[in-house]
Amino acid sequence: MGEPVSRASVQSFYEALASRDPLRLAPHLADDVEWLTVGPAEIFSFCGYRRGKAAVLDCIGRLMPATLAIKRFEPADIVIDGDTAAIINNVSAVRKDNGRILSYQTAIFVVFSAGKAVSVKGLADTFDMAEQVVGHRIDAFSVPDRQVPKDVIAL
Amino acid sequence: MTASISARGLPGSAPDRAIPDFLAAFYRAYLSRDETLLQQILHDDVEWLLMDPADQLDIYGRRNGKAETIELITRIMPCYFEILDFEFEHLLVDGQRVAAYGRVRARQRETGRALCFRGAHFLRFENGKLMSFRSMADTFDLVEQVVGHPIDITKRVERVTLVPEEDALLIV
C-alpha cells in the first residue's frame, strides 16, 4: 500500500468527478490511470475498461453524456484506508434517448498516488439499472430467440 | 498486480494488514453459515441489504434484525447458492467501518454451476458487532450466469391471471 491519501484529496477528486467536467477532472487523474466500470457495455456504452487519461476523459466527457444526463451524484458513505478510498454514491440520471429517469447507487473504489487517482473501479446493481432503462421487469429466464446469421448461404 | 485477499482465510490471507478480529469473525460466520457464530457477531438491530434484483431471487433486498438476517444466511441463501469465498482486491478498514471490493465465488445449488462475479461490501460495526451490511454486485452478469444464457432485455415478465374470469366455478 502506498502513501496515505488525505481526506481533502479524496473530497477534491470526488467533487471533480461529480461535476462530470473533463477539464476539472483531468488534474486529479494520473497519466496512466486505469478505469473500470463494471456492467453490460451493450446496454451502457460507458461500461468497460479504459487505460490512460485521454481514454477516461473521453468516456466521462463524451460516452457517458451521450447516454445519461446525471442530475444528482451525492456520496452516501466514504471509507478511506491508506492510499484507497471507497465511496457509495446516490445517483439520479435521465436517459437521453427516451427521457426515462434512473435512480441507483454505485460503489467506487479509488487508489491514489501522489494525490492523483491511478485506479478507479465502479460497480452498480446493473440488472436493476437495465430494468430502469427499458421500463419494465426483464424476464431473465426467457431464452433469447435464435437469430439466423445473415451471411449464411444455403446451396 | 496486487494479490487478492481471501475472506475465508482472514486474517492470515492478509499478512501485511492489521485485520480487526471482528472482521475476520464476521466473514468466518458468514461463509460457514454457523448460527452460533452469527449470533455472536451480529448486532441485535443489524441492518442487512443485498442491493440486487429481489424480483428474481428472494435472497436479495433488506432484512432487519438478527433473526431475519440469520434466517436469510442459514436457511434461504443455501437454497440458491453456496458462497465459496470472497476474493478482495481492495479491503479498507477505517475504525469500525469496512469497505471491500472484489470477486464473489459461489456455486449454484440447482445446477452445480460455478458463479464468479464482481461485488462490493460496506460494513459498519459497533462495539465489535455487525450493525450494517450493504452488498452491491454486477447483477446483470450474475443473473446471466444463474440462468445460463444471455439476457434479452426486451423480454418482459408477463402478467398472468391465476384464475380465468369466466371460470364457472367462481360463480356463487
Name its key features:
heterodimer, A: 155 residues, alpha+beta, 6-stranded mixed beta sheet, 4 helices, 26% helix, elongated, B: 172 residues
In short, what is this structure?
Chain A is α+β, with helices and mostly antiparallel strands.
Task: Lay out the secondary structure.
The complex is a heterodimer of chains A (155) and B (172).
Chain A: H1 7-19, H2 22-25, E1 29-37, E2 48-51, H3 53-67, E3 68-81, E4 84-95, E5 101-113, E6 116-124, H4 126-134
Chain B: E1 5-6, H1 21-32, H2 35-41, E2 42-51, E3 61-64, H3 66-80, E4 81-94, E5 97-108, E6 114-126, E7 129-137, H4 139-147
Parallel strand pairs in B: 2-7
Antiparallel strand pairs in B: 1-4, 2-3, 4-5, 5-6, 6-7
Helix pairs in contact in B: 1-2
Describe this structure in words.
The complex is a heterodimer of chains A (155) and B (172). Chain A is built from 4 helices and 6 strands. By secondary structure, chain A is an alpha+beta fold. Chain A has a 6-stranded mixed β-sheet, with helices on both faces. The longest helix of chain A is centred in the middle third of the chain and has 15 residues, at 53-67. Chain A starts with 6 loop residues before the first helix and ends in a 21-residue tail after the last helix. The model of chain A has no long low-confidence stretch (mean pLDDT 90). Chain B has 172 residues and is of the alpha+beta class. Chain B has 4 helices and 7 strands, in the order βααββαββββα. Chain B has helices spanning 21-32, 35-41, 66-80, 139-147, and strands spanning 5-6, 42-51, 61-64, 81-94, 97-108, 114-126, 129-137. In chain B, strands 1-4-5-6-7-2-3 form a 7-stranded mixed β-sheet. In chain B, helix 1 (21-32) packs antiparallel against helix 2. Chain B is globular, with a radius of gyration of 19 Å. The mean pLDDT of chain B is 88. At the A-B interface, strand 3, strand 4, strand 5, strand 6 and helix 4 of A face strand 4, strand 5, strand 6, strand 7 and helix 4 of B.
